[in-house]
Amino acid sequence: MAESEDNTDSVTADDVAAAAGVSRWTVARAFKKDASISRQSRERVIAAAEALGYAPDLMASSLASDRSNLIALITNDFNNPHKLVLLERLTRILWSRGWGTLLVHMSDSEDASAALLAASQRRVDAAVVIGTRFDDKMLETALGARRLKKLVIFARYSQNPNTLAIACDDEIAMRQIADHLLERGYHRPVFLAGPDTQSAKLHRKSTFIEYWRDRTGTIVPSINTSAYDFGPAIERVTALLQDRDAASRPDVLVCENDIIAIGAMDAIRYRMGLRVPQDIAVTGFDDIPLSSSPAYQLTTYRQPITAMAERLLDVLEGKLTGDVALPGQFIARLTT
Amino acid sequence: MAESEDNTDSVTADDVAAAAGVSRWTVARAFKKDASISRQSRERVIAAAEALGYAPDLMASSLASDRSNLIALITNDFNNPHKLVLLERLTRILWSRGWGTLLVHMSDSEDASAALLAASQRRVDAAVVIGTRFDDKMLETALGARRLKKLVIFARYSQNPNTLAIACDDEIAMRQIADHLLERGYHRPVFLAGPDTQSAKLHRKSTFIEYWRDRTGTIVPSINTSAYDFGPAIERVTALLQDRDAASRPDVLVCENDIIAIGAMDAIRYRMGLRVPQDIAVTGFDDIPLSSSPAYQLTTYRQPITAMAERLLDVLEGKLTGDVALPGQFIARLTT
DNA sequence: CACCGACTTGCACGCGCGTGCAACAATAAT
DNA sequence: ATTATTGTTGCACGCGCGTGCAAGTCGGTG
Questions:
Q1: Which has the closest alpha carbon to A118: B317, B59, B67, B2?
Q2: Is the pLDDT of residue B4 over 50?
Q3: Which listed site, A268, B34, B46, B196, has its alpha carbon 20 to 30 Å from B328?
Q4: Which residues in chain A are closer than 8 Å to B122, comparing Cβ atoms?
Q5: Distances in Å between the alpha carbon of A304 and those of A35, A133, A167, A284, B79?
Q6: Domain with A21 in it: what CATH number?
Q7: Where are the alpha helices (DSSP H) in chain B?
Q8: For B60-116, how does the pLDDT look when each residue is reduced to its tens digit (9 = 90+)?
Q9: A35 CB less than 7 Å from any atom of strand C
Q10: In angstroms, rounded to a whole number, what is the distance separating the alpha carbons of residues A244 and B173?
């Protein structure tokens, strides 16, 4: 144990090299995974480093190597609790594999280039867009304005060719939900989607509508909320159900995600005074923590976040270069 | 407009200098706020920079200047939706003022030093701890193991002298809640707190209990959940109310925060079949988005997050060096 | 016309580490 | 014992920019 606890100034590889009696480059090798270095040298260096409290400076390392080991996590939609789950899982897995995560807020297209610019100024190795409300134009602009090494779209599809999407397989998911509803005898669904952006690439709505038509021959009507939040969902569903009797009402609301489904349930219960699922059933998507609470018990579909994060690692390490859609898990609770 | 759109390799200050016919240092000055540079030089440089698509490399800048303009946001408790609100507000305000935010997960004390180490390896200018479950020992260890320039505790108190806390003023808040309850005629409260860590420095519980004793002469019992999450709160409250008749029940549950309050409400309603507030009233703390939903309509207290974030900026800019406690806003809804 | 202050610009050096190659030591093959 | 092979180590140079100082410019005054 070294007594130099007064090292307010940081200790560099040179200090460790001097202490261990080797060159600075040998010190660097000791900290590099597959470096060509003898075991005893490495041990001596590590011991010296520990005594001095040395840890490689990642910032200097980045500058020299042109790899920052930093990932920008770009998000806009902070109202959806599911984002918290995604952020948590991603940061934990990325850090555990040596990647740092830079959190970036990007509220609208105006911000977009600023956010990407800021990220690139930090030399991030990749930017991961987590959010449903980025349209492709925005991404294109962002990509054109500032070169990023990689742009990954997480938990959402994208048709931009310069982009790589890692998402839950919405088609499998929505078919499973549809099968479940058909099995339970529902026959008049309405699809409740989020904002109708130019190119929202969640295939949930179209898949559900097409599959339902194939199986029943009927066309499912759909409506949109103005935001991925429960407030607008409440308003929209209230407007939908207002002045309709039991015969003309939908018997199930298929929602694009859980937070909207929860708004729908609140509207059904507290605005209309109806029951879920007896009067109207509801399904969601994401399986946010609240969905399992006794108040909601929402039937939903869980995205395979961990598996998706693993694929993200593959992308970052260059082992994967194509889009990915992974199956998740259907979760039947009490709202259907 | 330059036609060099093929600049896969990044454009540096030297390139801009050449294009503008000045030296590299003049380019740097053009991008520095209060630098000594003539207006025409600056304009020429900015024009050249724009044409070339140049933006200063923050990583290299950090290395040279020993200021990274990076803040580590350290969190452990991702179950509480309030964290999302805090993260969103902080990142937005920090980025708008030129600070980048590094998101770090720190689940237990084992992680603590690893997280702080990782942060220091990135040369963060400060680490901001956002979370209620970090005990002071953990912080002390972390501080000792790796020197950080600044350690700020956000939305929580701390008595560690090497630390700076920015929080909502719990004393004012809890007195206001108590006054409200007394005014409404409640007289048998129970305080529902989170996990009883060694040194949880939320003064909410002690303040409430002391103030209630001062005003009524009675001692408020308190119970703990095993985590800041609604699931454990449901279990704990169910256990509390089980086998008690209306006379021996509390008439109000004062909860340390909203997510626990929501669990309490779920237990009261769905486990016990009782009504809020007719049978038992509930109060929370934080005013998370869900608290305003028709399903809960929770009476709570909103933390002054924006003001707290502004103070954080003061701290980062060295204008503030002492602890801060700011008053928030009491919000009466329908659960009392 | 010389001179002084205020403003503006250029530059040597360093931040801490990576890369690629050359030199060297330790072992195996002939 | 000599050479080929593998393993290990040292080093010059550069990553892109900031700091502090010295040199340069300009306009105005006596």
A1: B59
A2: no
A3: B196
A4: 58-59, 70, 100
A5: 35, 20, 9, 15, 18
A6: 1.10.260
A7: 13-20, 24-30, 39-52, 58-65, 81-96, 109-121, 136-145, 170-183, 204-216, 230-241, 258-266, 305-316
A8: 999 999 899 999 999 887 788 999 999 999 999 999 899 999 999 887 666 777 888
A9: no
A10: 45
| Nearest residue on chain A to B232, alpha-carbon basis | A293
Q: For residues B173 and B9, what is the distance between their CA atoms, to the nearest angstrom? A: 55
Chain A CA closest to residue B82: A81
pLDDT band for position A95 (cuts 50, 70, 90): very high
Using C1' positions and the CA of A35, the closest nucleotide is D8
Residue nearest to nucleotide D8 (CA to C1'): A37
**Among the listed residues A155, A167, A164, A146, the one whose alpha carbon sits nearest the alpha carbon of residue A75:** A155
Cis peptide bond prior to A277, omega within 30° of 0: yes
- Domain co-membership, B157 together with B246: no
- Tokens 């409430």 correspond to B208
Q: Are residues A260 and A142 in the same domain?
A: no
Residues 6+ apart with CB under 8 A from A336: A180, A181, A184, A186, A252, A277, A281, A282, A283, A299
| Count of domains for chain B | 3
From B192's Cα to the closest Cα of chain A, the distance in A is 19
| Residue carrying the six token digits 């911000």 | A111
Q: Å from A265 (CA) to D25 (C1')?
A: 74
d(CA B79, CA A288): 10
How far apart are the C-alpha atoms of A272 and B294, rounded to whole Å? 12
| Cα B98 to Cα A162: distance, rounded to the nearest angstrom | 28
Backbone angles phi, psi at B265, to 5 degrees: -65, -40
Q: Are residues B42 and B74 in the same domain?
A: no
Question: Contact A83/B84 with Cβ under 8 angstroms?
Answer: yes
Backbone angles phi, psi at B109, to 5 degrees: -65, -25
The radius of gyration of chain B's CA atoms, rounded to the nearest angstrom, is 25
- Radius of gyration of the CA atoms of chain A, in A: 25
Indicate if CB(B56) is under 7 A from strand D: yes
Nearest-CA neighbor of B122 among B176, B71, B194?
Answer: B71
Q: Which residues of B touch A79 (CB under 8 A)?
A: 289
Q: Which domain holds residue B255?
A: 170-302
Identify whether residues B295 and B246 lie together within a single domain.
Answer: yes
> Would you say A63 and B63 are in contact if contact means Cβ atoms under 8 Å apart?
yes
Clarify whether residues B140 and B176 are in a common domain: no
CA nearest neighbour of A77 among A155, A14, A147, A8: A155
Question: Nearest-CA residue to the C1' of D14?
Answer: A64
Positive or negative, the Cα torsion across B77, B79, B83, B88? positive
